[in-house]
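Trying the structure run again after the queue cleared.
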Amino acid sequence: MTRAKPLPLEQRRRALIEATIPLLLEHGADVSTRQIAEAAGVAEGTIFRAFGSKDDLLHAAVTDALTHDGLGEALAALPADADLATTVTAIAAALTERVTRMRTLVGLFHSRDWHAPHHTEASDPTKDSHGQARPDLTDALAAAHSEHGADHTEADTIVAPHHDPDVSGPMRCPRPDPRLIHERISNQVAQALAPHTAQLRATPQEAASVVIALTFGAQHPIAGHPSFSSPEALADLALHGLLKEA
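Done. C-alpha cells:
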C-alpha cells in the first residue's frame, strides 16, 4: 500500500489548532492530547511533532482564536439590503457570541503560566513532570514517526515549532494585544454600519463604540442586566436610548 503523503508542517499545525479551539471552549485547559488527536484524526504523537508540548498547542490555539475570531466574516455576510435595526441586531448577536468565547479564552491565559519567562531546558513530551517516562506517549510518538515516514529523526519529532533545532525552549506565540483586538473589532463594526451613515447621529466609528460598549457591558457577569441580554434588546437600546417615546 502506498503511504499517504503527509501534510506540510504548517498545514498540520493549522489543522490541530482548528481541532483544538472547540475542545478548549468545551473542556478548558483540561482537554487531553488524546481528545485533540481524535478530533483532528491523527495519532497522538503527531501533536508533539507539530508542537513542542500540549501547552504550546493550547497557547497557539488561544492566540489564534483571539486574533482570528471570524467577526469580520460574520458581519460581511449581512444582506446588502439589511436595514439599520437588522444590522445593529446582527452586530449585537455576533459580539455577544464573541464576548462569551473571548472570556473563556482570556481566562486560559490567566490560568496558565504563559506570561512567565520561558524555561531554558527543552521539554520532552515523553516524560512527566517528575522526569518519568510516559509509555503511552513514547508509543504515540513512535506512531507519528511511522505515519510521517522514516526520514524524520526522533530529535526533530519533539522539537518545538518556530525554533531552530539547536535552540531549546518551548514555542510561544506573541500574547495578543487587547488594544489591537479592540481596534480590529471597532473597525469591523464601523464598516458594517457605514452603509447607514445617513441615518446615524454619530459617525460609524462612534456608533460602533456605542454598540460595542453596550454589548460588552451587558455581558459583564456583575454589571450586566438580564433585560439587555438579547441582541434585539441591545439594538433597541442603542438605536432609541432610554427615553420613552412621546
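Residues 141 and 218 are 47 Å apart (CA to CA). Worth checking whether this holds up in the mutant runs.
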